[in-house]
Amino acid sequence: MRSAFISQIHSAWQLFLENFDWMAWNLFLALIPLVLSVILFILPRFSTGQYKLNSLVWGVGFLVFMAFLPNAPYVLTDLIHLIENIKENDSTWMIFLVLFPQYLLFTLIGFTAYVLSVINLAKFLKSQGWQQPQIVTVELVIHALCAIGVYLGRFLRFNSWHIITELPDLINSLIYDLIGKKPIIIMSFMFMILTILYWIMKQVTLGIILRIKQVNNQ
């Protein structure tokens, strides 16, 4: 009985480790835009003059931010690996106690990084005098650009750094590979998913932040 239990624990651990490396890498890429959003959009708002980025550095940082931002919602497409894992595993308890929690946590962290990144940008724009309709428009444009970025990453296998290392091929794909019926349908669907999930997660996130502030002020 004890040996069977230990064997099951070992199998569960091995199953967890099968996905750990690529999940850790994808989360690392997803967290890059979140870190950049803090540096570019949060710190300047609360600085006392000691922290200041010149316009050129800020502009380059913003481009890097936009280049890496699609990596955050990209985690949603990694759910295809969950289907593969389920097909490869015939143990129901392994699926429900290992795979589902692992993928849920992975997806939640990655997409939350996306939501927080865009929220930080929206707050920065508001601090610069932008009106709410303008900010919503920016958010929708970002969702559209990220939908394109996710398609480029998932189906055409481009990465963020290919903007520098494989720019001609990337431009060629943007011109010729994204105008077909299938890419447009997929990117439109991705845009709708990002828009809906972002709105839901934004309300939840802002509600949690507001609650934390209320608790701290008590």
UniProtKB/TrEMBL annotation:
Signal peptide boundaries: none
Pfam families noted in UniProt: DUF1361 (PF07099)
Protein name: DUF1361 domain-containing protein
Keywords of this entry: Membrane, Transmembrane, Transmembrane helix
Organism field: Floridaenema evergladense BLCC-F167
Ranges annotated as spanning the membrane: 22-43, 55-73, 93-119, 140-164, 184-201
InterPro entries xref list: DUF1361
Keyword Glycoprotein part of the UniProt annotation: no
